[in-house]
């Protein structure tokens, strides 16, 4: 073995016995000389042309190094950082000297991009600098990264689609990280506010529209209401035609303020409809707060998330009462008293009722913040007189109650609740009441 010194102080080895393999070519020598800094390590290759002692070595800067037309080392564009040092040792024997910085740097770059991809949600591709094994590795990594990126994108889109059917909040309440973790029978009990909404006289409205117009109308209406519920930390449990059932975790203010914004948005929605020559629509909202069981029901072939509780039934009944009392929003006493400051919201006591399916009476309140003007201002101005009239009625003083309700009706003839109480007073005075009448109104309709 003979030792050669390189012009830049490195060490060159020439060994006619050892054989190294470089893309499809046999080389007489392939030795690594490791310097203290691995980036300065040098790769020394000698190429014998014993079959052609007069071979001429030619260098192509962009293509590679060739000996009498036979490729020794490819140099793809942007590949090697420095030119190879090619020396003629003897007739027909050439030595090629390349610093391994040109080999190590693409590998380091590839490893850095792999690490960055693994540490973030973005894909970092590497530059293919050579057409050798390292270049093939870089191309393979880029192809793999693209496939992983596309796979993750597809999974993300699928998860987003799942969350449109099973809300993220539903999974959080069940303590599940993903929809695939849900099993039949999963359940949790907690206190929540339940909201029901419904469009007044939707059946008669839908009769004047085609099936497609009905479908478009429902989607436009629900498309306005759903973002409001989400903004106030609620989520929709289910759609039932033109009706919505929504759940609110945490403070009852979330449900109350969502209801107020929904009622105000309906005013803007009606303004657009009237400009288009369409009739205005009215919406009723009922809210009740209580304990409920949230979980997964069904069979192994078909499962769905649902809520089971008396609180759900009562919230639905309260929404139905908005039709009877002519109110936009009715909330239960259980919801109102759980607010940090109930007086933050303008409200008036409506009645004490027993709804269908309930044995106990429920105190109900009208949320005036959800009323359109000028109805809101008129009701707010006469809240004290209205409360006094309701007390007279509940204490069987029907003549005094009738007189006061009539005075209020002269002031606000568009208040449906006043007309309701005037009719009740007249009926009680005409037919009388049972001895055990306790002032609680029994509502048999839903």
Walk me through this protein's architecture.
The structure is a single chain. The protein is α+β, with helices and mostly antiparallel strands and 446 residues long. The protein folds into 3 domains: 2-99, no CATH class; 104-165; 169-372, Alpha-Beta Plaits. 40% of the residues lie in helices and 27% in strands. It is built from 12 helices and 20 strands. Strands 12, 13, 14, 15, 16, 17, 18, 19 and 20 form a 9-stranded mixed β-sheet that branches. A 4-stranded antiparallel β-sheet has the order 5-6-11-10. Strand 15 (283-298) and strand 16 form a beta hairpin. Helix 1 (101-119) packs parallel to helix 2 (133-165), helix 5 (211-231) packs antiparallel against helix 6 and helix 10 (383-394) packs antiparallel against helix 11 (398-411). It is elongated. Mean pLDDT is 75; it is low at 1-86 and 88-98.
């Amino acid at each position: 073995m003979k030792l050669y010194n390189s012009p830049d102080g490195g060490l060159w080895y020439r060994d006619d016995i050892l054989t190294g393999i470089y893309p499809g070519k046999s080389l007489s020598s392939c030795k690594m000389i490791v310097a203290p800094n691995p980036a300065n390590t040098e790769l020394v290759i000698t190429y014998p042309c014993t079959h052609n002692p007069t071979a001429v070595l030619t260098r192509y800067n962009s293509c590679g190094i060739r000996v009498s037309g036979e490729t020794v080392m490819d140099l793809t564009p942007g590949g090697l950082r420095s030119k190879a040092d090619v020396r003629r040792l003897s007739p027909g024997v050439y030595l090629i000297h390349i610093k391994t910085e040109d080999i190590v740097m693409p590998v380091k770059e590839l490893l850095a991009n792999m690490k960055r991809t693994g540490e973030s949600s973005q894909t970092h591709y590497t530059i293919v600098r050579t057409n050798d094994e390292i270049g093939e590795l870089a191309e393979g990594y880029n192809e793999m990264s693209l496939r992983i990126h596309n796979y993750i994108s597809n999974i993300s889109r699928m998860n987003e689609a799942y969350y449109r059917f099973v809300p993220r909040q539903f999974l959080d309440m069940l303590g599940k990280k993903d929809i695939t973790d849900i099993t039949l029978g999963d359940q949790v009990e907690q206190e929540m506010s339940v909201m029901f909404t419904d469009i007044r006289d939707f059946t008669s409205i839908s009769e004047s529209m085609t099936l497609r117009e009905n479908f478009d109308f429902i989607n436009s209406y629900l498309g306005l209401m759903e973002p409001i519920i989400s903004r106030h930390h609620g989520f929709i449990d289910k759609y039932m035609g033109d009706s919505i059932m929504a759940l609110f975790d945490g403070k009852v203010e979330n449900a109350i303020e969502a209801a107020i914004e929904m009622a105000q948005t309906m005013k803007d929605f009606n303004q657009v409809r009237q400009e288009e020559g369409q009739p205005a629509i009215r919406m009723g909202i009922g809210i009740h707060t209580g304990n409920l069981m949230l979980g997964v029901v069904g069979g192994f072939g078909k499962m769905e998330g649902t809520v089971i509780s008396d609180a759900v039934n009562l919230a639905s009944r309260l929404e139905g009462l908005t039709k009877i009392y002519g109110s936009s929003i009715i909330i239960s006493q259980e919801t109102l008293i759980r607010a940090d400051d109930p007086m933050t919201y303008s409200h008036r006591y409506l009645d004490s009722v027993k709804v269908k399916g309930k044995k106990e009476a429920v105190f109900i309140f009208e949320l005036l913040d959800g009323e359109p003007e000028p109805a809101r201002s008129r009701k707010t101005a006469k809240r004290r007189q209205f409360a006094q009239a309701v007390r007279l009625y509940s204490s069987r003083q029907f003549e005094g109650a009738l007189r006061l309700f009539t005075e209020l009706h002269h002031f606000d003839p568009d208040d449906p609740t006043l007309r309701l109480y005037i009719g009740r007073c007249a009926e009680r005075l005409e037919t009388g009441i049972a001895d055990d009448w306790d002032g609680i109104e029994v509502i048999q309709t839903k």
